[in-house]
Amino acid sequence: MRSASKARTVVPGGQYAVHRLRGPVEQMAGAWLALTRDWLAGGLQLDARPFIEYCPPDVAYDPASGVFEAQPCMPVTRL
Hints:
By secondary structure, this protein is an alpha+beta fold. The chain has one domain (about 15-79). The protein has one helix at about 30-40; strands at about 15-20, 20-25, 45, 50-55, 60, 65-79. Strands 1, 2, 3, 4, 5 and 6 form a six-stranded antiparallel beta sheet that branches. Strand 5 and strand 6 (about 65-79) form a beta hairpin. The radius of gyration is 14 Å and the shape is flat. This is GyrI-like small molecule binding domain-containing protein.
């Protein structure tokens, strides 16, 4: 089993749209799509900062089902 790599960085400040995902990794693409569809339709636009997939330090993961928790974060700004 390959161990996950970790990185620590400073993220530029600003507003992020966040989706809370609890499910298998196969649902991550749908989470990104939901962010794009739901948030950008609400008077926001993409900002030129990094996209982030945040997993809290106490993230839950079930190896039997593959279900985990993550928070895809998309940088946004007002139109």
